[in-house]
Design brief:
heterodimer, A: 937 residues, mainly alpha, Serine Threonine Protein Phosphatase 5, Tetratricopeptide repeat, 75% helix, 0% strand, disordered N terminus, B: 290 residues, alpha+beta, SH3 type barrels, 3 domains, 60% helix
Chain lengths: 937, 290
């Protein structure tokens, strides 16, 4: 750009000379003096021509006069007048070579009118510029500046030209030094001149590759632009220089510097507004100075500057994506500097605002990958879908966007959607670089969805469609795994046996070896499996495959009766593989138990309790230690062992397995007397815990005590647990304890009291196994408070999160009951489905049948309703309240159906059941029965 | 009239004499009078130095259409108050508010600044009565002050007060309205920042209510929506309006605070570094209170 600046300067000079501002007005004043002097004809002709603006002709006549009569003494004075006129004529005619000697001659005079000297002195510089005599031009402008009597505005212009000529001559360092040195001078000039000097200085620094200095000057100008925008006339130039600086730092890898520069570039519209505003100022100035004889050279320059501005504006307007290009570069700078968040936000905004097919489309994969890196997967999916929806399928980056979309769906566990997305990609872009990978992922997803057949088919298709795929190794391995997962161990084994030969450099050699060994084990071929497992596990790796192999090896050795070798194998499992380590540990315990090696078993278990008390299998270890004592007939020792562990960890919030130990205690106290002893010990535990201010321990002992009384299943247990409601806090205490307290309070008919605990348990354990039950309770609470929408939401979640079908049925029934008024048919269908749930509990069945009866009744289907009510009292007569209500409702409906006799029978049947007396609806049945009887009599 | 004289006397007692203002007329003339009231049609004045020697103060009226502009003349003491608002006694500010209240809608009147300072003092108090006073005063300033800057500051302060007293819904509503109405980029950024403060409060409340939100499928999406929206809001000034330096710096600091709240210390440090790197002059200033 700086190069074009230099060319621009030369063009400017030539342009100036192409449009010289007329000095006619000033010259005419002198011409009138000539009319009295002769040879008249020459002078008159010349004057005539001058006034007619035929400057060449005028110069000719005046020239002839001086040639013929110039030496005469009497024309000496006339000559002094004619010489400037001739200079003007040549200037006006743009004959600068011819004008030059005349201008120099005139300027050499000592009696020159100051204004003439001023104007011609400036013209001298302009003429030399036109002649491309840079050195002389510089001298001329330098002399002009040096003369403090000259017009101040023109002096500063001359100084600017002086500096600029360094650039034109290819001395950017000198230009830069010059402009920097003159800064204090510019500060006394018009601010606009300062601004232009600044732009030139930046250009000089950039040409000399003093980027830091260019940057310093540029930002000083930006600060000035911020404070007084009207003082910067070269807005477009400044933005383009700033952009270039940003580009330079970007290419140098100095991202932060690039960011600073690119952020400073203003929006295109704002820049154009400011530039146009300056153009208007120049236009106004030109109008004002049109007739002025003192500023013609300056105005000529102004005109040229204005033309240049117009051209810059046109060129700038022809960059409709200027703003977008700057933003993209800025976003890239942020990303390169590790500022992923900022880069992604900028890119996304640019994408959302841009038209399809714009520059930003190419950056969309980068945007998606950034959001993916930040874990904002839902944003990736959303943006990819926007791209797919709004961009042409022919967009260059479409295959990559589609792949990222599909892959992100897979990572978000939206497997079915991912399948579809991968398939769409392969269909649309079978030749894309990611096509084979997409097919592979489809196969892999089939495996995740437990569709081994689908996986095998997909992998086979992949190899068929892309025989040269780089994923052939992966396809081979996972095809074998499809057989393995399907339990086809024989096929899988043969497949993996051939793997090393097919893929000598393959990436799954070790895994293949492992699968051969484990497939052999799974086929029950322990003798063959043992050497394979030994060979694999002897490779020295301490990873999970080795751990698993050692456990299986132990099992296989046990199967072959090789107990000691099995124990050794189990013992080799590295502690770092927690899952297999504990499994192997307890297999050793089992082996010792089965081989009556009690002392070793005890030592092993004690070691576990001492070293791994945080394990979830602690109760199991304690249980087996107690079993050893019990087998030895020493139940006291067994109890003592339990109590030692319980007391040690009773107040430790992290030892959540304590509840398992506490619930196992009653088995060590089988008789009533022993239960009393346990009760006493637990009560002592509670007391002592409170004394020591160990609330958690007290809660646990209290819960243990309640279990002794039957827990939440008996009234005694319920009362015990309900009494703990104020003390229990789900934030600190186990969900099991809180849930038992809740169940107890609910069983005692006080759901509202349990509400706070229910909400706290949900709050502190959102993923608890009890969340289905909790949502059901919350649904009931909301329903009772009239918040039907909230109730519906909770029942839906209860149905979703409950594990047992019975609990799901209960939630569905509750939903149906809410739906009954609004949509009875759907409610009926829902309840009918619920009633088909296998092993549905009687209470739910009764509730379902009653609800069906009520719904049919509410929509006038009396006959159908009577059938449901009948089923209730016939099949579930033990539910006394529901039975009474069912008798009453059926009777009423039969009366409405004009079957009074049958209605009376129903009432009498109910009355005959003395166990229904006193229940709601019973008095109504009595009354109605008597009424009907009286009527019939 | 009597109240004006009494109030003027009070001001003299408090050391702040009320001087006459200069009313410049469209005709080119100027009068020095005390402005008693001004409506769309009429300005009622008190001329304390009438032309007739020996005559007492004269009340009169000027047509509002004749007024070009007014130069409010502050006495030495009032000027001192005006230039040191934060240390001016509350009682003096209240008095000045009372006297100049009718000038609230007049250009260049200092009353807006007094009102704002009073509101700020009240909002900083612990007394709920003061908070209500602050809210009322700010509402008046928002709707009647001539100065756009005063109106905006009053709006921002009102939202701050509402947040402080727990009126989150009202704060959110007012912040959204303000956002929708303003076009001035600096004010727009201020409005957005206030709206973001409301959301940040909502985020804090959500996490307080759901301490294990990351495990709760129902709550997690809303939490993430709030968090991400806030991050984008806080970063917007430095990304889109980097030259609005106060807002840009504050946004980066708020983003750091948010990242820290989210437990991402690395990200928080990165935002703080950027704030110091790109806005070093702002980094040393105390932040405006939330």
């Amino acid at each position: 750009m700086v190069r074009s600046c230099r060319v621009w300067n030369v063009r400017v000079v030539k342009g100036i000379t192409a449009c010289i501002f007329s000095m006619a007005l000033w010259a005419q004043e002198e011409a009138s003096v000539l009319q009295t002097l002769g040879p008249r004809e020459l002078i008159a002709q010349g004057q005539q021509a001058f006034q007619a603006r035929s400057y060449a002709e005028a110069a000719h006549f005046f020239g002839l006069f001086l040639d013929d009569y110039g030496e005469a003494e009497e024309v000496a004075e006339l000559k002094t007048l004619l010489e400037p006129m001739i200079a003007v004529c040549f200037i006006q005619s743009q004959r600068f070579e011819e004008a030059l000697p005349w201008v120099e001659t005139v300027l050499a005079r000592t009696d020159l009118h100051p204004k003439l000297a001023d104007e011609l002195g400036y013209w001298l510089g302009v003429i030399h510029l036109a002649r491309e005599d840079w050195v002389q031009a510089q001298h001329a402008f330098g002399r002009y500046w040096a003369n403090e009597a000259n017009n101040e505005a023109k002096r500063f212009e001359a100084l600017l030209q002086f500096g600029q000529l360094y650039l034109v001559q290819g001395f950017p360092e000198d230009a830069a030094e010059f402009f920097a040195a003159q800064r204090s001078v510019w500060s006394t000039a018009q601010p606009e001149v300062m601004g232009r000097a600044g732009v030139l200085e930046i250009a000089a620094h950039m040409e000399a590759e003093n980027w830091q200095k260019a940057y310093t000057v540029a930002f000083a100008l930006h600060d000035q632009a911020e404070r007084e925008p009207e003082q910067i006339s070269q807005w477009i130039m400044l933005q383009q220089q700033t952009l270039q600086l940003g580009q330079h730092w970007f290419e140098e890898g100095d991202w932060e510097q690039a960011i600073v520069c690119l952020r400073a570039v203003r929006p295109q519209e704002q820049v154009l507004d400011q530039q146009r505003s300056w153009m208007q100022r120049y236009e106004k100035e030109l109008e004002e100075y049109q007739g002025s004889r003192d500023f013609q050279a300056l105005m000529t320059q102004r005109k040229m500057r204005l033309q240049r501005m117009r051209a810059e504006v046109v060129r700038f307007e022809q960059q409709p994506e200027f703003d977008l290009a700057v933003r993209l570069r800025l976003a890239q700078s942020y990303l390169q500097s590790g500022r992923d968040m900022q880069g992604a936000i900028l890119l996304e905004r640019a994408f959302r605002a841009a038209e399809p097919g714009s520059l930003v489309d190419a950056a969309v994969p980068s945007l998606l990958q950034t959001w993916s890196r930040l874990g904002w997967h839902d944003r990736v999916i959303e943006l990819a879908e926007v791209f797919k929806r709004t961009r042409s399928v022919e967009a260059e980056v479409m295959p990559l966007v589609m792949f990222v979309h599909a892959d992100t769906l897979r990572q978000s566990d939206r497997l079915e959607e991912a399948q579809i997305a991968y398939e769409e990609l392969v269909e649309a872009f079978p030749d894309a670089a990611t096509a084979d990978q997409s097919m592979f992922m489809q196969g892999f997803i089939y495996l995740l969805l437990d569709d081994q057949e689908g996986a095998r088919f997909q992998f086979a298709q992949l190899l068929k469609q892309y025989p040269e795929t780089a994923l052939a190794d992966e396809v081979d391995y996972w095809t074998g795994m499809a057989d393995y997962f399907a339990g086809d161990y024989g096929t899988a084994r043969e497949h993996f046996r051939g793997y090393p030969e097919r893929w000598p450099q393959g990436g799954y050699g070790r895994e293949a070896q492992f699968r051969v060994a484990t497939a052999t084990f799974s086929l029950g071929e322990y003798e063959q499996a043992i050497p394979l497992l030994v060979e694999f596990s002897d490779q020295g790796d301490a990873d999970e495959l080795t751990a698993e192999a050692l456990v299986l090896l132990g099992d296989a050795l046990i199967g072959q009766g090789k107990v000691e070798e099995a124990l050794q194998s189990y013992q080799r499992v590295a502690i770092s593989n927690e899952r297999f380590f504990e499994e192997a540990y307890f297999k050793r315990v089992k082996v010792m138990r089965l081989s009556d090696r009690t002392d070793e078993m005890r030592a092993l278990l004690q070691g576990f309790v001492e070293n791994f008390s945080a394990s979830s299998r602690l109760p199991e270890a304690v249980y087996w230690l107690g079993w050893i004592d019990q087998e030895a007939g020493d139940i006291a020792a067994a109890r003592d062992r339990y109590w030692r562990v319980i007391r040690e960890f009773a107040n430790d919030a992290d030892r959540t397995t304590l509840v398992s130990l506490l619930s196992a205690l009653p088995k060590l106290y089988p008789t009533d007397a022993e239960r009393d002893l346990l009760r006493s010990e637990l009560q002592t535990g509670i007391r002592e815990a409170f004394d020591r201010d160990e609330t958690h321990a007290a809660i646990r002992y209290g819960w243990g005590l309640a279990q002794l009384k039957g827990g939440s299943k008996t009234q005694a247990g319920q009362l015990e647990l309900a009494g703990m409601i104020r003390a229990v806090s789900p934030r600190y205490h186990e969900p099991e304890i809180a849930m038992d307290v809740i169940r107890s309070v609910v069983a005692l008919q006080n759901v509202a009291t349990a509400e706070k605990l229910v909400r706290e348990l949900r709050r502190w354990h959102p993923r608890t196994v009890y969340r289905g039950e909790l949502h059901f309770l919350l649904g009931e609470l909301e329903r009772d408070q009239g918040q039907l929408t909230e109730a519906r939401g909770h029942f839906e979640k209860s149905a979703r999160f409950s594990l047992a079908p019975v609990d799901v049925a209960r939630a569905e029934l509750a939903l149906a009951q809410l739906l009954a008024e609004r949509d009875p048919e759907t409610a009926i269908a829902k309840i009918t489905t619920v009633l088909e749930t296998p092993k549905l509990s009687a209470p739910i069945k009764v509730a379902g049948l009653m609800e069906l009866g009520r719904i049919h009744e509410s929509i006038g289907r009396y006959r159908q309703a009577t059938a449901f009510y009948e089923r209730v009292y016939v099949s579930y007569g033990g539910f006394l309240e529901e039975t009474t209500e069912a008798y009453w409702r059926r009777g009423q409906l039969l009366e409405k159906l004009q079957v009074g006799e049958l209605a009376l029978q129903v009432y009498q049947e109910a009355i005959a059941r003395s166990d229904l007396a006193g229940l709601p609806f019973y008095p109504d049945i009595l009354k109605r029965s008597m009424a009907l009887k009286g009527g019939s009599e | 009239m009597k109240s004006v004289i009494i109030t003027a006397a009070l001001l003299v007692v408090s050391g702040i004499a009320w001087c006459e203002d200069r009313v410049f007329l469209k005709s080119g003339g100027m009068v020095e009078v005390r402005i008693l009231s001004m409506t769309e049609s009429e300005m009622r004045i008190l001329d304390e130095t009438p032309e007739t020697p020996g005559a007492g103060p004269v009340q009169g009226a000027i047509s509002s259409q004749e007024v070009a502009y007014i130069e409010f003349h502050l006495s030495e003491n009032e000027r001192r108050v005006f230039e040191n608002l934060q240390t001016a006694p509350l009682s003096v500010l209240e008095e000045l508010w009372g006297i100049r209240f009718h000038q609230l809608a007049l250009p260049r009147s200092p009353i807006g600044a007094y009102g704002l300072e009073l509101a700020r003092r009240w909002s900083a108090s612990d007394d709920p009565v003061d908070h209500q006073r602050a809210l009322n005063r700010l509402e008046v300033l928002m709707t009647r002050a001539w100065d756009e800057q005063i109106r905006s500051e009053a709006q921002a302060e009102r939202i701050r007060v509402l947040l402080r007293i727990g009126e989150h819904q009202t704060a959110e509503h007012e912040a959204s309205q303000w956002l929708a109405q303003t076009e001035n980029p600096v004010l727009l950024l201020e409005a957005k920042w206030m709206a973001a403060q409301v959301d940040f409060d909502a985020l804090r409340a959500l996490e307080q209510e759901h301490p294990r939100w990351e495990q709760d499928e129902d709550v997690k999406p809303e939490r993430m929506r709030l968090y991400r929206g806030l991050l984008e809001s806080f970063l917007e000034p430095s990304l889109e309006h980097p030259r609005v330096r106060v807002a840009a710096h504050r946004g980066l600091i708020s983003a750091a605070e948010l990242a820290e709240f989210d437990g991402d210390e690395e990200l928080a440090d990165s935002f703080r570094r950027d704030a110091a790197l790109w806005y070093p002059e702002q980094h040393l200033q105390p932040l405006s209170p939330p």
